[in-house]
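Hi everyone,

Forwarding the result from last night's run.
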Amino acid sequence: MLRDPVPVRHAEGRVHPWLAESGSWTGDKEYTLKLRQGVTWSDGKPLVADDVVYTFELGKMETIPYHPLWEFLEKVEAVDPATVKFTFKEANYQQFANHLYSRAIVPKHVWDGRSEKEVLDGLNEKPVGTGPYAYHSHDQDRMVWVKRDGWWATKALNLDVKPKYIVDIVNGSNEVALGLLLQNGLDLSNNFLPGIANLVNGNFGIKTYYSKPPYMLSANTAWLVPNTTRKPMDDPEFRKALAHSIDLKTIVEKVYGNLVLPASPTGLLPQWDKFVDKSVVSSQGFTYDEAKAKKLLADAGYRDRDGDGLVENKDGSKIELELAVPNGWTDWMESIRVISASAKKAGINVEPVFPEYPKLVSDRSSGDFDLMINNERQLSNTPWLYYDYLFRLPVQKQQNTVNFGRYENERAWELTQDLDRTKVEDVEGMAKITSELQKIHLDEMPVIPLWYNGLWSQTTSTAWKNWPSAEGSAPKNPPTLWRNWIELGGIYTLTNLQPAQG
């Protein structure tokens, strides 16, 4: 599917109408959406209310990631071809607002009649969407899109994407992306690339959003996720000791060369700073402190009984933990080597492992892991999305998108639901609830926030110029097209480009 969100959301926090002209709560448990007139699919057919209804009703299939929507959505219906009415069992304002701008709308006339298995893993050889590009061709290492003549948004929103073709190159590693970039084989790379300072300051013609550290905008939080169903990660005191054992400064400075920022102890992205309770962080936050980590371990009953410098479990059994990241993700691979080394200095035996990505995904879903790094959730309209990621209950046999550590805290989940039922305009009410969630998080430490992954983006100006940049009058939209960022303003990158020559 192409991602065709109902609105587009810019990084500064404003929502701009996109496929919809307007929407509002027309009752305590009723939301009415008006679609924009003249929107067409890439096959020429009009976008109508039935497409929106069909898309949301797909979520009734249990395998669809947004299936939990139907826990509080009662029905969705087309009032007329341009009007959709949502009726709720309960009004979860935060979650529904997130669906409004992030839900990919699909064409009913293409998808209707497909079985759940076909929807889940069937081939979509010629995708149809409402975006500025239509499917052109694909091969093993690329997908090619061609600019649509008469794209509806050119007239409706005064938007015109400049490149005629978008060639999305598949690469197997960061090193491959670096090689292509240095050979002018890429205009835009959204991979992590090591040695950015040398690339930006050298004579390579490569630019980033900032010309100095951290070079990139912040995209998401990298979390250390302990499997709380396994000993000793089921012990909050052990998890807190582990948090204090992590030499984050070395990761930020040595592994990333100051390309990333250390995360707030709350894990909330910088864009959500107004929801961070500074007093909670001051009293309950954590930092790298080897002595504190050792004291927490000793006070909780973890001792080095055999003199090898590593503590054992309370029952005397060995602690042998594996910390996993995908093979080929070089920045994360180096980062967990640092985590392993500093944890061992504090007495915690952690070994880095590098499974292939499909195996890691399978293991984290089934709970077959000790520790892992994850950054599943991106920036959104609300910090609710992060707390839903951390605390969602009940724990399922397969945890596919949330609560990979299988942490169970009924109070935290109740507060997350209370946050969901708070209107997005009620900033004070949201801050009160998020403060309570931060207290639980820092007291229990079910996940450990590490750093903010950068919004990886490196550009060359051989073919195109006027890329997003913090400098001068350059565009300020996100210069990234992956993981929903095209909805978060990334589409404007393509509309603002200018040919480098002629």
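The two ends are 35 Å apart (CA to CA).

Cheers,
N.
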